[in-house]
Amino acid sequence: MEIVQVKHHPEIELIARLRRVPLQEQPEVLIYQPALISLEQIHTNYLHPPQNYIWLTELRKVQELRWSLREHGMDMFQLNGFVTYTVREKNGDLVDYDLYPPVVEESFEADGSLAHLINDGMHRVYLARSEWVIPQVVYVRGIPKAYPYYAFPRPQGWEGLDLLPDNPDKNRYLKKCHRIRYNKSLYRNFQAVFKNVGGSRSAMRQE
Fold it and tell me: What are the CB-based long-range contacts (under 8 Å, 24+) for 16-19?
């Protein structure tokens, strides 16, 4: 991956942008506007993945990104805000990407349990766990009860998580256990306020 430039943005700007994140299908609902948002160091043992697998291709790209950012003096697991990094694509084009810490939501479940649910950044948290790092995360408390994260945390946590070479067939593999039939109505649209964060990083160049 050829990163040609990295720009750091402070914590205050990160939080200001997060407060403007809308729901994908209800853009008038700014899901984090009333919430308490902070940057916290949380051990991965206390973070709850909602997804049943890690995609190996994506994990390798995230690892490559970690190494490339380190060459520019940035620690992926201690951003203290967020960064915009510029990648030179294979065709020579320059493309900007934003990277913020993994987003963790306080989620109260039906049995009374409190889960620190990983909303965004699952592969980065898994990499931090693999490297024995306590990552910095965006921790969000006080989300309106009407708009929970669209899937449940895994009851068994990290135990039994699959490491797969490809994205599985959704008709044969349960990626997440959704809370409601129309789960997309609860999607948080980070792409609305950050650059190129909505899709897989697997399209990025790897040397």
Answer: 17/82, 17/193, 17/194, 18/100, 18/103, 18/138, 18/140, 18/193
Convert the pLDDT of each residue in 123-147 to its tens digit: 999 999 999 999 999 999 999 999 9
Angle (CA) 55 48 59, round 5°? 20
Q: Which residues contact 28 (CB under 8 A, 6 or more apart)?
A: 22
Best CA proximity match to 124, nearest among 62, 75, 68, 52: 62
Residue 22 phi/psi, 5-degree rounding, is -95, 170
CA–CA distance, 58 with 164 (Å, rounded to integer): 10
Kind and range of the H or E run holding 14 = helix 11-18
Tokens representing residue 18 in the block: 């997060």
Whether pTM > 0.70 for this model: the answer is yes
N residues, the chain? 207
| Residue closest to 51 by CA, chosen among 197, 158, 198 | 158
Cα distances (Å, whole numbers) of residue 103 to 4, 160, 192, 194, 207: 26, 22, 16, 13, 29
pLDDT digits (tens, 9 = 90+) for 178-202: 999 999 999 999 999 999 996 544 3
Q: How many angstroms separate the CA atoms of 20 and 36, rounded?
A: 13
Angle subtended at Cα 47 by Cα 22 and Cα 70, rounded to the nearest 5 degrees? 80
Q: Alpha-carbon distance 188 to 27, whole Å?
A: 10
In 3D space, the residue among 114, 115, 119 whose CA is nearest the CA of residue 104 turns out to be 119
